[in-house]
Amino acid sequence: MKQNRLIMGMPVTVEIVDASAKQQDFEEVFSYFQYIDEKFSTYKENSEITKINRRELPDAMYSDDMRLIFALCEETKKLTNGYFDIVTPQGMYDPSGLVKGWSIYNAANILKEKGFNSFYVDVAGDIQPHGRKEGEKWKVGIRNPFNRNEIIKVLHVSEEGVATSGTYIRGQHIYNPFDKNSNLTDVVSLSVVGPNIYEADRFATAAFAMGKKGIDFIAQLNGFEAYMIDKDGVATMTQNFNKYTLP
């Protein structure tokens, strides 16, 4: 059973391979993403993050989830030598580079807690699978950034999260915090496989901000692999990336 919604301005897909899955199970996941959108969207006038950016909300009034996200963002900034930075060139906070993967991970945990053994949650191509489908690992495609109708790699994953950062869909929405006014043009797509989607997504965002050296950063992380495509269409992968292309 698979369902799709447009939430946070992005396609959200949930598939549960279990005959006992009910509509309410899907609604709980979609409702959670609606909650995330209402709290963290920088495009909504009344979201908590927008109120913080307008200086309408003092620190003491931040919600528990907002406090947690700010703490996780600060931790990620330290782990990436400053390349993960939620302060935009305009001086506003935008934690979406971490919130997306974090929320997908949490949504997957909602289904785990319900006892489902086989499912995946996908938000705009960032995916958290769980278990297997018909005895096989879940298949996740990496798109050609120069032709989005073409799948150039098929990954086989069970519990690992897969996140892709790039400029070929949303344009220049990621920046180098050490040169915030320059565009990132050397790399067009960077896909990261990590222990879960939260870890994969936050490090994919930071690595993309590093430019071509980002894949070297991922290669040094234990339990992570990456596949990078540069502006000339040249692909580079980490040493053990191909283990995910095998069934």
Offer a few descriptive terms.
alpha+beta; T-fold; 31% helix; single chain; globular; four-stranded antiparallel sheet; 247 residues; 10 strands
3D structure, described in words:
The protein has 247 residues and is of the alpha+beta class. The longest helix has 18 residues. It is globular, with a radius of gyration of 18 Å. Helix 1 runs antiparallel to helix 4. The protein has a single domain, classed as Roll (T-fold). It is built from 6 helices and 10 strands, in the order ββααααββββββααββ. Strand 3 and strand 4 form a beta hairpin. The mean pLDDT is 93. Strands 1-2-3-4 form a 4-stranded antiparallel sheet, with helices on one face. Strands 7-8-9-10 form a 4-stranded antiparallel sheet. Strands 5-6 form a two-stranded antiparallel sheet.
Describe the sheet with the most strands. Answer: 4 strands, antiparallel
- Number of individual domains: 1
Strand residue content? 25-35%
Taking Cα atoms only, what radius of gyration do you get, to the nearest Å?
18 Å
Work out the helicity level: 25-40%
* Unreliable stretches covering 5 or more consecutive residues: none
State the end-to-end distance: 23 Å
Assign the CATH topology.
T-fold
Task: Give, in spatial order, the strands making up the sheet with the most strands.
Answer: 1-2-3-4
Mean pLDDT over the full residue set: 93
Give the name of the CATH superfamily.
Answer: ApbE-like domains
- Give me the count of strands: 10
Order of helices and strands: EEHHHHEEEEEEHHEE
Net shape: globular
In the CATH hierarchy, what is the architecture at level 2?
A: Roll
- Indicate the CATH class: Alpha Beta
